[in-house]
UniProtKB/TrEMBL annotation:
Gene3D superfamilies: 3.30.465.10, 3.30.70.2740, Vanillyl-alcohol Oxidase, Chain A, domain 4 (1.10.45.10). Signal peptide: none annotated. This is FAD-binding protein. Its cofactor is FAD. InterPro entries: FAD-bd_oxidored_4_C, FAD-bd_PCMH, FAD-bd_PCMH-like_sf, FAD-bd_PCMH_sub2, FAD-linked_Oxase-like_C, FAD-linked_OxidoTrans_Type4, Oxid_FAD_bind_N, Vanillyl_alc_oxidase_C-sub2. The lineage of its organism: Bacteria, Pseudomonadati, Pseudomonadota, Alphaproteobacteria, Hyphomicrobiales. Residues 51-229 form the FAD-binding PCMH-type domain. It comes from Roseibium salinum. Pfam families: FAD-oxidase_C, FAD_binding_4. Keywords: FAD, Flavoprotein, Oxidoreductase.
Amino acid sequence: MTAIAMPAPDKDVIARRQEILRALQAIVPGEGVIHDEREMRAYETDALTAYRQLPLIVVLPQTVDQVSRVLKYCYDNNVKVVPRGAGTSLSGGALPLADGVLLSMMKFNQVLDVDFANRAAVVQPGVTNLGITRAVEHEGFYYAPDPSSQIACSIGGNIAENSGGVHCLKYGLTTNNVLGLEMVLINGEVVRLGGKHLDSEGYDLLALMTGSEGLLGVVTEVTVRILQKPETARALLIGFPTSEDGGRCVADIIGAGIIPGGMEMMDKLAIHAAEDFVHAGYPRDVEALLIVELDGPEGEVDLLIGRVEEIARTNQASHLRVSESEEERMTFWAGRKAAFPAVGRISPDYLCMDGTIPRRELPRVLARMRELSVKHGLAVANVFHAGDGNLHPLILYDANKPGELDAAEAFGADILKLCVEVGGVLTGEHGVGIEKRDLMSEMFTEEDLKQQQRVKCAFDEKHLLNPGKVFPVLNSCAELGKMHVHKGKLPFPDIPRF
């Protein structure tokens, strides 16, 4: 059970479990409904494994009609629903509810259409991120967003969290690469947003859905942009005597007008863990390691490599190596891609944080994190998307030692508060979920949060979709709809009211 407060389970719904089970089995027959406690254990947590909760029932639909009927039944019978993809979320966004149906979309796993002429692919939400690239690479195309979990994470989950990856600096996050969606609302209505065309008229509901963390609807089909692979791609491995030197180098590269395909940074603890795990040839005698990838026409890449080398030396680089083959470039990235599991080999447990800061604040934030590490008595390994300031501190702890989980959470909260303090935000790509939910007031005012909840009410007035996530205090839609009267006067009295 999670220590984080969640909505109190509805005893009436739990008492009706057998009735709900029979109704869902009629909609999704065969093995599409899981209700045995042991079998449901696989769904009790996402990648934020410190928190666990068995769902009421698990449903695995295979058709849009089944999704629509399941949601319509839950809407009519006031049953909560938690949508779930591959379960790689690091913010507890897919944490089940004791009185809620967990709706797994992983049987929606087909690539439906590839349109090279329009540079688009239509896929179901259970297709893995890497699966899209695998489906188009034979023609020299790929899907640009590439989170470290791309071998496992689903494109539907990427949309829920607006995932990024090592190449998001130049090619954008999920929201910059999704062209259209088919989704089902909580009342069972099926709607389409966008398509293969560049832009849609009216409100940008497509961007609203991307990053909505399962609070607004359930995605059943996705149209994504695919890109041609660049003519040339080469990577530089640059080591620095201090993390501050590395941080300044990042800022100087961007300040020089150079936008790398990817720019990642690791500190000494992460470097050693990755090198021990992958043997990528990382230098061990540096405090910070920067991977800078440049892509495009061969002549342009050669020119930019020279400019980056010059900037690196100006910032006291003590190690500099340029990839001379595609195999070597991929080896450089192999260590970074495996950094999270690599750190898992040196600590019984870790919390992977996700905050974003202005690039210029990198040296200051890294220095402050070292102080916080001493304050909380826990080590931290830093791995982050340096180009866009998206930090992923890995806080090492042992859940079997009393108080260490609490200390890790307090450490993580201090890091996220620091991100906001220096002009950044609470999350870059992992989402809010339950992990950052109670810190939302650090970044937003009460009125800001209420305005966000009004959007939630427009899609889900009963608060049945993924409740307990994102909002620290969830107001009812009726409360949010009330008119504030101050000293007997309505606001803006000159506006006609109906």
